[in-house]
Amino acid sequence: MPVSNQPLTHLNARGEAHMVDVADKPESRREASASGLIRMRPETLALLAEGGLPKGDVLATARIAGIQAAKRTHELIPLCHALALSKVSVEFDLDATASCVHVTARCSLNGRTGVEMEALTAVSVACLTLYDMCKAVDKGMEIGAIQLDTKRGGRSGDYQRAAGPDPRAPGASLIDTPADPIVTGEVASGESGLGQRSLTAAPGIRVKCLAELRERLGIGEISVPVERLPSSDVAGLKTALKVLDPRFEGLDQGRVLCAVNQVMAGETTPLSDNDEVAFFPPVTGG
Amino acid sequence: MIRVQEEVFDVGAEQRALSEGRRDIGALVSFTGLVRDVNERPDVEALTLEHYPGMTEAALGEIVEQAKARWPLQGVRVIHRIGRLAPSDPIVLVVVASAHRRAAFEACDFIMDYLKTRAPFWKKEHTVSGDYWVSERDADHQDARRWEMSS
Q: What ipTM is given for this predicted complex?
């Protein structure tokens, strides 16, 4: 494939890396899909299909991991913008013939920048999570063929990967691609969505107490199911924590600060599944 | 560039890294914070620095971005150490490069004021008379507020 003559947009006139200013670009519908695969032993794939792996529901967990990763792409890839994705879906296709799992991710939004990096990140992290969930029985698994398949919208136009060698083995796979994806997450702008299958695997809200507060309460980390919250915000979480363990009454003693997903937050900051909430005393660094 | 690390840093090396190969930098201001043996109590033998991995880097990044929005800067380095430190050990380094000294002085001052009141680090001091977590100081908040009034 010929190398494009277009300049690299992430380099400025001095050749230094910089973030592209997209404020003046018009908003448009953007979509991208990416795929990859993880090869494993046939026995591992069979265990995965039966749900017999020690860490539990592998596909639901990998799907959440992929969706979460898509939303956090800007934290991983230095010059990526933070995007309010309108949809992320992650699908799995168990291929017994090639003894692998095909992973496909689709991302979309109405915005000023493309979502290719988000789709590629979702596939990568879903594959890594599959590895993590299955490594107890198979350490020789191999992740590969991570690629952008299609991209639509934006100034640089549409892209469709030319048909190349299919990573799948020839012949029909024993397990066909299901008509409905095994798991998908379809969500309102910027929010995480949870498909029905994932509800059982939902890890809840992860709560951390740091520094002096951790020692004063005698509690480091705890997970709280969202259903326990009388209201879906920080105030509701505090109420639920005090019901779970009276030591959390200490949250009201002295000045205690709060961060949600590592950003400073207040009593009315909304919470949803998978959020990380930290409570800590005033900072004293420097 | 922002780093949170246990290892000691080399002020000279960090300054050189910031200015190397650049001909447009006219001022390089650096601040190094050291561990004192007298703080809330005398005879501090050591202190332990805890932080909130992930949020620390993000908070420091946000502070540096604010400094870059306020002053024309050619480069910034912030290094904060964590773990156990002894009196006289360097604990924090801020190096700011700009074309002119005023911007570099002010931006360095600003970054330290915001770091002390916004970045999630906590100090526990170990003294002859026992261990305790250091309390926040009102003077630090007053220092940080100067930048709100002047903007």
A: 0.92
